[in-house]
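Minutes, project check-in
Item: structure for the 142-residue chain
Input as provided by the requester:
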Amino acid sequence: MAVGPVEYLVVAFPGSRFTGVIAPALADAVASKAVRIIDLAFVHRAEDGAIETVELEDLDPDELVSFERVEGEVTGLLNSEDIRTLGERVPAGSSAALIVWEDLWAVPLTAAVRASGGQVIAHERIPAEVAEAAVSASGSAR
């Protein structure tokens, strides 16, 4: 079975609670079949640096409602060590969402590469800020 590239994103928000404002955009990406959510975790890093894992069911009910449309097979791919390591990157006094997804759009490409005997020899994500700066510097526009 071909699997598309799997990526993760850690999004930090200042303050002691996660806001579900990103949930609709995440739900749209899932609904469009561009991605499949593999894991979703939440952490809070206290001012003293202590990291607390926040379970989805422990979120404020108003925040939880916004995640109702985010469907995916949450498999628990992130273990407690992964969460701690990623949580150390979260600024003190902030909360973060840790999102792991599979790029479903790339599954047919992955299968075609393998079927043709090819192999991926490089794959790296260029940060949005870098791409935006390059486009801006070149004078190109979409």
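Outcome recorded: Residues 79 and 98 are 12 Å apart (CA to CA).
No further action items on this chain.
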